[in-house]
Amino acid sequence: MDKFLEMKTFAAVVDGGSFVRAADALGMSKPAVSRYVADLEQRLGVQLLQRTTRKLSLTEEGRGFYGRCKTVLADVEFAETEVTATSVVVNGLIKINVPVSFGLLHLAPLWPDFMAQYPDVRLDITLADRVVDLVDEGFDMAVRIARLPSSSLISRKLASTRLVLCASPGYVRQHGNPKHPAELSGHAVLSYSLLATGDQWEFVGPEGSVSVTVQPSMWTNSGDTCRAAAVRDQGVILQPSFIVGDDLRSGALVELMPQYRSIEIGIFAIYPTRQYVPPKVRAMVDFLTQALKGVRWCDENAG
User: Fold this and answer.
1) Are residues 23 and 98 in the same domain?
2) Measured between alpha carbons, how far is 184 from 236 in angstroms, rounded to an integer?
3) Whole-model pTM over 0.85
4) Rounded to the nearest 5°, which phi and psi values hold at 156?
5) In which domain, by residue range, is 32 found?
6) What distance in Å separates the CA atoms of residue 69 and residue 130, rounded to the nearest whole number?
7) Same domain, yes or no, for 142 and 218?
8) Model confidence pLDDT, tens digit, residues 241-265
């Protein structure tokens, strides 16, 4: 039995909190993951995991062994990265899908830098807000904005953003400043039709979670269209900070009800498998991770 694979599987189970999540992360079947862990425990002669129908927990021996495993796995990854960085030529075509607004505002300025750094790589960039099937549609990778990426794909978090409730100062002067999410029913609302929660907007305030169903005067599948109408005094919007950050700083928009924060969303690079990540994809993911590290769109520290 491959001792390294046993350690890698055991660590994935602990990291994921279940055999199913470990199987997804490793591209294995659940029975294979269970077998590797069972064989490891049998070989070591100790129980590493306490298993119940509801959860997994580490035994005392398991906690110590898990720490050792993570150290060994990190050392191996570092050694492989060093070899890859010095011996692999990064070239070929990368087909990548990115969201429209984020792609135009924040990724378009980065592509020339990547091309200058990797002149042998060609880019095929598709801007679309729909969720594409990476494998069926032939994409090497994608950038997605979501609370959590799909468990069937491999992901690396690039940054964070949050949805900000805002309107123009002119709109607030004319229609007042709502103090509670329930008051949004009396306001003109400009709604992003692809929002995961639809016209049910979610907030966390002093009394905990609050959800309100809004009655939009406009729906659109473009966050930029929502923003454009909002700065012209036409209503209230709930948009990511990467779209409205500059307007909030300039005063063209003002945040409403700051004591009621809406959801935070992750920005992820995703790709189909970790079994073999082409050097060109690894280079792009590393490049985007570094380029977006510590980025700030309004008052949150993303990343």
Assistant:
1) no
2) 8
3) no
4) -135, 130
5) 3-87
6) 39
7) yes
8) 999 999 999 999 999 999 999 988 8
Classify strands 92-98 and 121-127 as parallel, antiparallel or unpaired: parallel
Q: How far is CA 135 from CA 132, 153, 174, 249, 287, in A?
A: 9, 10, 50, 40, 22
Pairwise CA distance, residues 110 & 75, whole Å: 31
Rounded CA-CA distance 208/200 in Å is 16
Q: Hunting for tokens 């700051």 — which residue is that?
A: 258
218 and 77 housed in the same domain: no
Q: In this structure, are 124 and 230 located in the same domain?
A: yes
Of 67, 87, 107, which residue is a domain's last? 87
Q: What is the rounded CA–CA span in Å between residue 189 and residue 267?
A: 25
Task: Return the CATH number at 169.
Answer: 3.40.190.290
- The overall longest dimension of the chain from CA atoms, in Å, is 74
CA dist 133 and 232 (Å) reads 37
Task: Give CA–CA dist 66/9, Å, rounded.
Answer: 11
Residue whose structure tokens are 């229609």: 175
> Where is 105: in which H helix or E strand?
none
Beta bridge partners of 87: none
Give one DSSP letter per residue of 78-101, joined into a string. Answer: HHHHHHHHHH----EEEEEEE-HH
Position 119 pLDDT exceeds 90: yes
- Counting residues of the chain whose pLDDT is more than 90, the rounded percentage is 56
Please tell me whether residues 67 and 116 are part of one structural domain: no
Assign 54 to helix, strand or coil: coil
pLDDT in tens, 168-197: 999 999 999 999 999 998 899 999 998 888
Q: What is the pLDDT of residues 78-110, one digit of tens each?
A: 677 666 555 567 889 999 999 999 999 999 999
Q: Which of 172, 178, 217 is nearest to 199 (CA)?
A: 217
Residue carrying structure tokens 């091309």: 115
Most confidently modeled of 7-16, 19-28, 219-228?
Answer: 219-228
